[in-house]
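This part of the workshop introduces the protein records we will be handling. To make this concrete, we reproduce a full record directly below.
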Amino acid sequence: MLKKVLFLDFDGVLNPTLNMIALHKMWEVSNKQIKSQDEFGNAFFQYNVDCLYKILEQTKCKIVISSAWRYSGLIKIKQMWVKRGYSNVHDIIDITPFENEIMKHQNIEFYDAICRGTEIDFWLKKNNFTGNYCIVDDCDDMLDSQKDFFVQTDSRVGLLDSDVVKIVEILNR
């Protein structure tokens, strides 16, 4: 039975803007020898990935991808996870639904009316999830009912050890 879920964004969490800028500059200066991307997209910052490992280790949670990267599909994300040598690919169990699925079920007319929090809420209801969850994202477009389950990162630096403490506390309640 699924007891703990981490809703994970990538850009601004595992892929901070300062890292993207630095890698791009290194790529330019190195005559394109230092890679800033692979076939999946921008390389994640190892410090941020290490912070994710700490969360997984301390909570035994599973991951649902809420990032815009989910548009490439769950299979592609899992392929990236394996190729980049990240944690156990089985830690990733799903992606949040797309706007069109939510619109169809909730009679919403405009994509703009669907925020990240709505996507997560739809996933929770669709999966009858009653365990602990935490949302980690650099944007704060969550529902009011999700504020106690939300940790916002600074998009410039991504997931930090101080965020890990908060996330672990939320998931291990």
About this structure: Residues 50 and 168 are 14 Å apart (CA to CA). The beta strands are 4-8, 37-38, 41-42, 62-65, 92-95, 132-137, 150-152. The chain has a mean pLDDT of 91.
